[in-house]
């Protein structure tokens, strides 16, 4: 016999969207690094602009995490921000593990970056949920026969 509260939690939490968020965040960061590697190498080794290279990767990472949270928040079936939050935690853990494996970890970047990336992904999730609510509200108004000029 299943516990009603446990089944309610599983019904309101969708691992599919967590997986998509992790795939988007991890894949996006890896692809961004691979695509920018020649530029990063040039900035670090030839121009000696380490801060600029770090800022470039940090900015892209922040954008990727935000878009991942926004996507998951908008597309997940239920109105919760749990999926983007869990996706952010798992993504940060995977990317940290990958950096440790490759010997590229920066402890300062990890200590400062992990909470920022989580927060940005969570913010994206909140905005995605708001977007979802607006779309569902418009659909409900259309289905109920509201006047089209009030759907702005």
Task: Give keywords.
elongated, mainly alpha, 152 residues, 83% helix
Give structural notes.
The chain has 152 residues and is mostly helical. The chain has one domain. Helices cover 83% and strands 0% of the residues. It has 5 helices and no strands. It has helices at 4-12, 15-46, 50-75, 82-102, 107-144.
By oligomeric state, this entry counts as: single chain
What radius of gyration results from the CA coordinates? Answer: 19 Å
Strand content: under 5%
Given the helix and strand composition, which structural class is it?
A: mainly alpha
Q: What is the count of distinct domains?
A: 1
Number of helices: 5
Shape: elongated
Mean pLDDT: 83
Query: From N to C, what is the helix and strand string?
Result: HHHHH
User: Tally of extended strands?
Assistant: 0
Q: How can the largest sheet be summarized?
A: none
Percent helix range: over 70%
Give the distance, in angstroms, between the N- and C-terminal Cα atoms.
Answer: 48 Å
Uncertain stretches of 5 or more adjacent residues: 6-10
